[in-house]
Design goal:
Helix 5 packs across helix 6 (126-140) and helix 7 (165-183) runs parallel beside helix 9. Helices cover 46% and strands 13% of the residues. Helix 6 (126-140) links the parallel strand 4 and strand 5. It has helices spanning 2-9, 17-20, 24-32, 69-75, 99-113, 126-140, 165-183, 192-196, 200-215, 219-225, 230-248, 272-277, 304-316, 321-331; strands at 43-47, 55-58, 81-84, 119-124, 145-151, 259-266, 287-295. The termini are far apart. By secondary structure, it is α/β, with parallel strands linked by helices. The longest helix is centred in the middle third of the chain and has 19 residues, at 165-183. It is built from 14 helices and 7 strands.
């Protein structure tokens, strides 16, 4: 169905277009009104109403922002929420290989929506590392970053060894499918052991066939999964691989601003406290660590995401008049 719309309007819709038009009619309106879906516009407006400063949430390794929909919903209609997705997902532009170039690209898009601070930034998994670098660049501009929120982020994910290409490709596809399926509350249909036995082209075809099979069991998934073909999965694979390689070569610098670190109780390959400790040399300012029920994916699913949203809302809320007056008293020179 999405493929038919793309052919009719000669426009390429990413999966994240479902946020902007949750019915086919709305997607047609989006297209005919000229909303830019190409990779030169990485912002995905998931929730645009509200008077508060926007929360900009950077994609995880998979590149798209499907998994943020529930979080944006629980933050409420008064909190604008923009996802930021990777270049390369819809064709026409290659993924970035440099962290500095990528974040400069994202920062340009952010400042078209919000030219000055205070800024609220965050990201899940690899997206937290990218958000950190955006915060660094904003600080160099003299801008105020009010909130930097990292969600179960690993400073340097070395699980994937690119010297073993078949295993690395299998791990990337396994993680990618698990991410896509977790965003729609479905178990991954892909077997890592099967992927390990295949070459890349066969791995991609196997992945497509398994995802298409999932679509047959749910009408809700058909619009989403009918657009999943070999070319789309290859693009998502290339983006995910580029993102991981980029972060592996990134050298993070100490960050002086305040940070909220949210880790899953069942966190990656190490415990939540150990994961937080890996950032100790980077978090030079005030940092707060909160553990959220669930694993690396399910902390963004119901009911865990509601708890996360409550913590984020309290963390990024603007100061009350009483708090502002108190701060002004503290700033006054003493007699």
């Amino acid at each position: 169905m999405i493929n038919q719309i793309q052919q009719r309007f000669n426009s390429s819709l990413p999966i994240s277009a479902l946020f902007e038009g949750d019915t086919i009619a709305k997607m047609v309106v989006v297209l005919t009104e000229g909303v830019d879906h190409n990779d030169l516009a990485p912002l995905v407006p998931i929730q645009v109403s509200g008077e508060l400063p926007p929360f900009f949430c950077i994609h995880p390794g998979g590149g798209d922002v499907l998994s943020y929909y529930s979080l944006a919903k629980h933050l409420g209609t008064d909190q604008p929420f923009y996802g930021i997705r990777s270049p390369g997902l819809t064709g026409g532009q290659e993924p970035f290989s440099s962290m500095e170039a990528l974040t400069a690209h994202y920062l340009e898009a952010i400042q078209k929506v919000q030219p000055t601070g205070p800024y609220h930034l965050g990201g899940h998994s690899l997206g937290g590392v990218i958000a950190l670098e955006i915060a660094q660049q904003l600080s160099l501009q003299g801008q105020v970053v009010h909130s930097l929120i990292l969600i179960d982020s690993m400073l340097s994910d070395r699980r994937i060894d690119f010297t073993d290409s078949k295993k690395a490709n299998a791990m990337i596809l396994n993680d990618l499918v698990r991410w896509i399926c977790s965003a729609i509350n479905r178990a991954s249909p892909v077997s890592f052991d099967v992927l390990l036995e295949l070459e890349l082209d066969e791995q991609l075809r196997y992945t497509v066939s398994q995802l298409r099979a999932v679509a047959t069991t749910s009408e809700q998934l058909q619009v989403l999964f009918e657009e999943i073909d070999l070319n789309l999965i290859r693009r998502y694979f290339n983006v995910c691989k580029a993102n991981i390689q980029m972060v592996q070569s990134y050298q993070a610098k100490p960050y002086l601003g305040k940070v909220l670190f949210l880790s899953a109780e069942e966190s990656l390959d190490i415990g939540p406290q150990d994961l937080f400790s890996t950032w100790s040399e980077i978090f030079s300012g005030a940092s707060e660590h909160v553990t959220i029920p669930g694993n690396h994916e399910s902390l963004l699913e119901e009911p865990n995401v509601k708890l996360m949203a409550e913590k984020i809302k309290s963390y990024i809320k603007p100061p009350t008049a009483v708090e502002i007056d108190f701060e002004s008293v503290l700033d006054e020179p003493h007699q």
